[in-house]
Amino acid sequence: METTKTHGPEAGELDADRGPDRTEDDGATDAAVPGTAPGTAPETASPGTAPATTGEPQDLDESDDVDEPETPGSADAPAGVVPGAAAVVGAALGLASLTGTWLGTVLAERRQLIGQINTSSGSPAQQIEQIYGAPWHTTAAVNGVCALAALVVLGAVLLAGRNAAPWVRAVAWGGLALGVLGLCVAAGTWFDLFGGLPSVAGNPVSSGG
Fold first, then answer.
1. What is the DSSP string of 127-150?
2. Alpha-helical runs (H) found in the chain
3. How many Cβ atoms from other residues are within 10 Å of residue 174's Cβ?
4. What is the mean pLDDT of the chain?
5. Cα angle 177, 182, 109; round to 5
6. Are 94 and 179 in contact (CB under 8 A)?
7. CA distance 140 to 100
8. What is the mean pLDDT of residues 56-83?
9. Contacts of 144 (CB under 8 A, 6+ apart)
10. CA 60 to CA 68: how far, in whole Å?
11. Tens digits of per-residue pLDDT, 11-27?
12. What confidence tier does 29 reach under pLDDT thresholds 50, 70, 90?
């Protein structure tokens, strides 16, 4: 069989028709992304998709702006200590005005010793007054001073610490009651309301025979 080869204008037209197609294919192959398999198109990220995370922890700036929580009552701690301490001291003074103090005992004994020295040669009424009555009144005076101090301290706590803790106000009210009671007892002791001074009976008058 004889093969006929076309020469001339028709062959040129065929080559011209095939030329662009081969050029586009070759360009597409050459434009492939390095590292990809031949004939595969590179993957492109679609618009609107978030980039993949690498797994490394990210630094959050918000952590620096977050304030650390404050301990409840830390700002009010110094303000709450003073009323509490004053309430305890006032309650102790109110209790001391009822039970007595070491200072009152010492002063009463000193006053009794002075009375014994001054009335060594005095009348029985003077000895009773100096040895018994004066120490009694000295103790009452010391207890009354403690009661007044308790009333002043606790009154200041209740007036100034209106927003104080409940236990502070409870201790202050209890100490105030003790102070009032102690002041009443001291006043009654000073004015001999609970018992007068002992008296000496007069010598009976002897009748002459």
1. HHIIIIIHHHHHHHHHHHHHHHHH
2. 9-30, 62-65, 77-99, 102-118, 124-128, 134-160, 166-190
3. 16
4. 74
5. 155
6. yes
7. 9
8. 55
9. 97, 182, 183, 186, 187, 190
10. 16
11. 544 454 554 444 444 44
12. very low
